[in-house]
């Protein structure tokens, strides 16, 4: 029942997004991936170039507009996290959270990100939480359910993602979604107690500008909890940008690659939720071959080292504009925790 209702609501949102949101000139994923390739391979971002940064952001928002219009493999866009104890903890709070329209791995990545903040779940009742790069909103909705936070705001550069988030999850003043840029957040100074950032920072031309903005919108003593996949170049960018923001004190950095790889492997398994849902979609055999390799790449398969590097896989990755993952492989998946110093 629930799944059918989800599918129907997806179809409606898809039609709206397709007719109103997508720039018809921006359909070639390969073209759109060039600015991201500069970001990950060539080292753009060391010297901030306004024009290049705007091009990168426009390309990224177009890609996510397209994904927001068509994605129906669950409502989260991250590689996930697997840990049986953490899953049992969430199961106590939200029984059955892995049973309907989700395998739960992406929610667990959010839960892990949350539990690294030194606040108990009960402490959120009077707290304001911001998610930067909230995608289509399901992660923040999940956080609202596990914390009961007073107010949660999501911001994302993709208009279609925010339209879908608002259409599906917004709840009056308590849960809101807004279009905006991580490097220029549309919020007042000191508005939030907590900022979460899940698998989004790798797309920002300047991590330094993002950290400055997070420090500005956080209350003194507030927390930033961030997880992301890092190439060698991005790891270097992090190491340089972290000390560059004096209003953020870094409290922890942890490699969570094993838990993320475990989730990706479970998703790649033959009878996984993602594989079964994908198999139900109607498409030609050629499109299926391309889409399947694109999907596995997008879900982090190359990070596990198990992904096929057959000529077909290579060709279809190139076709889908995801070939950048071969040029700039992800080396680790990390969590970072910072607090805003006064
Ligand atoms: C991999 S998705 C993750 C979405 C969500 N956090 C989740 O885990 O489902 C990355 C998100 O970051 C957003 N994003 C990329 N660059 C951004 C920017 N400069 N400002 C705000 N959002 C951005 C994208 O539009 C996309 O929705």
Automatic annotation (TrEMBL):
Query: Which positions fall inside the Methyltransferase type domain?
Result: 130-225
- Would you say which domain of life the source belongs to? Bacteria
Q: Name a biological process GO annotation.
A: methylation
* Coiled-coil stretches noted in the UniProt entry, renumbered to this chain: none
Q: Which Gene Ontology molecular-function terms are recorded?
A: sterol 24-C-methyltransferase activity
Instruction: Name the keywords, alphabetized.
Output: Methyltransferase, Transferase
Q: Name one Pfam family in it.
A: Methyltransf_11
Query: Which parts of the sequence are annotated with region: Disordered?
Result: 1-20
Q: Where is the composition biased (Basic and acidic residues)?
A: 1-13
Q: What is this protein called?
A: Class I SAM-dependent methyltransferase
């Amino acid at each position: 029942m629930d799944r059918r209702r989800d599918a129907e609501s997806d179809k409606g949102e898809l039609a709206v997004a397709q007719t109103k949101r997508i720039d018809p000139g921006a359909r070639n994923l390969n073209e759109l991936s060039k600015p991201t390739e500069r970001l990950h391979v060539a080292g753009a971002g060391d010297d901030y170039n306004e024009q290049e940064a705007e091009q990168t952001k426009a390309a990224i928002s177009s890609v996510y507009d397209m994904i927001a219009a068509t994605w129906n493999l669950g409502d989260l866009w991250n590689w996930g996290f697997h840990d049986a104890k953490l899953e049992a903890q969430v199961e106590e709070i939200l029984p059955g959270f892995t049973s309907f329209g989700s395998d739960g791995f992406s929610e667990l990545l959010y839960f892990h990100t949350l539990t690294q903040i030194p606040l108990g779940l009960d402490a959120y009742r009077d707290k304001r939480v911001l998610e930067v790069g909230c995608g289509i909103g399901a992660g923040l909705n999940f956080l609202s359910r596990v914390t009961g936070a007073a107010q949660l705001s999501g911001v994302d550069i993709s208009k279609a993602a925010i339209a879908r988030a608002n259409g599906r999850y917004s709840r009056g003043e308590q849960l809101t979604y807004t279009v905006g840029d991580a490097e220029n957040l549309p919020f007042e100074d000191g508005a939030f107690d907590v900022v979460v950032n899940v698998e989004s920072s790798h797309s920002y031309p300047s991590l330094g500008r993002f950290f400055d903005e997070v420090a500005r919108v956080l209350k003194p003593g507030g927390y930033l909890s961030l997880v992301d996949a890092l190439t060698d170049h991005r790891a270097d960018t992090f190491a340089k940008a972290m000390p560059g923001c004096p209003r953020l004190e870094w409290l922890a950095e942890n490699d969570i690659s094993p838990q993320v790889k475990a989730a990706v492997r479970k998703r790649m398994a033959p009878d996984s939720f993602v594989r079964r849902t994908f198999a139900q979609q109607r498409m030609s055999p050629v499109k299926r071959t391309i889409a399947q390799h694109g999907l596995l790449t997008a879900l982090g398969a190359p990070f596990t080292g198990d992904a096929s590097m057959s000529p077909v896989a290579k060709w279809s990755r190139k076709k889908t504009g995801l070939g950048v993952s071969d040029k700039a492989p992800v080396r680790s998946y990390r969590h970072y925790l910072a607090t805003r110093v006064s």
